[in-house]
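Give me structure tokens for this 249-residue protein.
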Amino acid sequence: MEKKNPLLSFFTSEWYFSYPMTLMLFVALALVVWRLLLNMSAKSNLDALLPDVQENLKRKGTKAALALCETETGLIPKVMYTAGLQASDQGVAAMRRSMQAAVDHEILPRLNFLLPTILAIAKIATMVGLLGTVISMILTFTAMNSEAVKGAAAGADMAKQSEKIGLALFATAFGLMTAIPLVFAHVLFKASITKFEIKTKVAAQKLVTLVQKAKSGDWGEEEEEDRGKKGRNREEDEEEDRRGSRARR
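Here you go.
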């Protein structure tokens, strides 16, 4: 007797459970990939952006810094920094409130987008798999009872029904195979949201500091460092001129 592939038998014999569960698996994978792409687009290189924001605040004012942030794609400059700079004329407290509101009402909802659906599919897949196993077991034991009443051969009956019991357990296994990676992905996404929220608080404080310096005109050590660099550059230029003069003589 040719041995059948248990997985193939599950898809052919228990198609009314295997097909919906397969569909849920592919939908869940698509949602996870979509969420990963959204997370990538939400990131921004603040180490490269903040010097440009500072330069615009120093040279051109708040409007130039605001225009720069509006051209960015990351959530922190595009949403939070824009909200903060728009409220900068009303003071530091207004900036903080505006940025916190942007985080609570715009950034966090965007970061949590699709996560409830992913978690729901993980839970539903487990329950559908368990339901498939229970229904298949009920049908199998009912068939065993009917064959026992009819007086079927014991050996053939046990071999046939044990195969059906194995197929019934495939439903639970398939549900767990779908749910476990989804729950793991959900936990990782939640952890990344927590890290991103901490990053927003640090970034907000940096912007507040830059705006305060721009309003007071006191850039402190940064201006001294710039003047020092310019002075060193002038000295180097003068030294090169003197060397060139001596060479011509």
